[in-house]
Amino acid sequence: MIHFTPPPDFHLWGPLVVNVHSLAFCVGALAAYLWTWKRLEADYREHLDNIALWMTVGGLLGARLLFALVNYQLLTSPAQILAFWEGGLISYGGFAGAIAAWWGYLRYYGLSPARFAQAMGPPALLGWGLGRWGCFLAWNGELGVYTDLPWGFQVGEDAPRHPVMLYLALWNCLWGLACAKLSPRWQVNGAALSLFFFGAGRAVLDYWRDYDPSWLYWGSLAFSLMWVILAFYLMKIWPYSASTAPSESKPTEPAEGAI
Q: At what angle do helices 164-186 and 113-138 cross, to 10 degrees?
C-alpha cells in the first residue's frame, strides 16, 4: 500500500480558500486555453477570450446546479446553491454547462461549431485531466473501492483504496495528447474523438469508484455511454478540418436572426 497525506488548504481571507484541488483546475484551464489558442487560426482567436469566460461561468453554474439537484436539500436555500467556496461541484454538470455556453456563443455569432471543436477538443481533455490531478492530491470526492493491491492509497485511518482520481487524471491527460495526433491521422474531428475517450474512460474507470448510494454508479455509467454515443454522432456530422480558419469573412457581429 501507499501511505498518502493530502496537502493542507490555504486560508486567505474570510471564506476564500486556496487548495490544491482548485489550483489544479486553474492550471488545467490555463493549459487548455493556451493550447487552444495555438491551434486556432488568427481569425478565430479574437473570440477565444469571450468563449473561455462564458464556458467558465456556464461550467461553474452547471456543476453547482447538478450538485444541488443531487443534494436536493440545498434547493430550500438559494444562497447555498451559489456557495461555490464550500465545495460541491459535479463534473457532468460542469461539462454540460460549459458546452451549453459554448454552443450559445457560437450560434449567436454565427461561428462554425465544427471548426472551433476541432481546435478545442484535445486541449479540453488534457485540461480536464490536469484538473483531476487536483482531485487526487486533495483526495476529494471520488474515492475508490477498497483494495489490497500494492498501489492502493491509504489516507489517515481509512483502509487502502483504488486511486480512481489518479486513474482518470492519467487517462484524460494521455488521451488528450494522443487525440491531437490521431485526429489528423484518422481524419476525425478532434472534439468528437476526445469526447469518445472522455466517456469511454469514465465508463470503464467508474467500476473502481466507491459510489454511495450505489445507484449513482448506474447514473454515471448512463451519462458516460451517452457521451460515447454523442461522440459517434459528432464524428458523422462534424468533418475533420486541417485548418480552423473560417472560409468566409470573419464574423464579429451576431448572426442575423440569432437569439
A: 160
At which residue does the C-alpha cell 488568427 appear?
A: 42
Q: Taking all residues of the chain, what is their mean pLDDT, rounded to a whole number? A: 84
pTM score: 0.81
Q: Quote the longest CA-to-CA distance of the chain.
A: 62
Residues 6+ apart with CB under 8 A from 203: 221, 224, 225, 228
Domain ranges for the chain, please list them: 17-237
For 46, the grid coordinates are: 479574437
What's residue 73's pLDDT? 67
In the numeric block, which cell numbers belong to residue 83?
Answer: 456557495
Nine cell digits for residue 99: 458546452
| Closest to 172 measured CA to CA, from 198, 146, 139, 208 | 198
Quick one: cell of 245? 480558419
Report long-range pairs for 144-152 (Cβ below 8 Å, ≥24 apart).
144/208, 144/209, 144/210, 145/208, 145/209, 145/210, 146/210, 147/208, 150/1, 150/2, 151/2, 152/1, 152/2
Neighbour tally for 61: CB within 10 Å: 19
Nearest to 205, CA basis, from 227, 193, 226, 220? 220
